[in-house]
Amino acid sequence: ARGDRAMSRRGQIAIDRIVALRSSVLPIYILIRPDGSVTTADEVSEDGNDFLTTRMSGDQIAFQSIGGDYLSAEGGKVSTRRYCSANERFTVEKQETQYAFRSRCGMYLSVSDRAPFVGLAPTAGDTEVFQLFSLMMCGVNVGQQLDLLDRTGQVVIDNLLDGDQLASMKASLAQ
């Protein structure tokens, strides 16, 4: 079953700008390594380097690593490319609070606990459905701040400094 499409009030799919892509049934995440290879791991790094930047266009999404590589389904297999064309965009299909990603060739992004760990499947079964986890640092959703910066040119982060840090800064400015 394809499920409902995830739409916000503006008719756009609402997905954060920086996410970790985790299987809904297997305890693994999809990662793009610095060398551009695609693999899985049972956890993501706390520094945010394993998270993927999302690029939305209508109901399609592209996933880009911190190194600039895009997840690709070119030639019916999962790899990466340095550019974003039709093979690097996936149609988002919402399934309750989770997502399936359909490639240009109609196959779905899929994970397995055996090599190849990331591939494509003809239908959206259990291993083709993913949860998206937003990058949070110090209690701040980094993707939302990036969106706000793009739209308004500024960000406001409440309680970034505690009272002691603020007092120390005020004292040094007064000198």
From TrEMBL:
InterPro entries noted in UniProt: Actin-crosslinking, Fascin-like_dom
UniProt name for this protein: Fascin-like domain-containing protein
Source organism superkingdom: Eukaryota
Gene3D superfamilies in alphabetical order: 2.80.10.50
Keyword Cytoplasm: yes
Organism for this UniProt entry: Polarella glacialis (Dinoflagellate)
Keyword Cytoplasm listed: yes
UniProt-annotated location(s): Cytoplasm
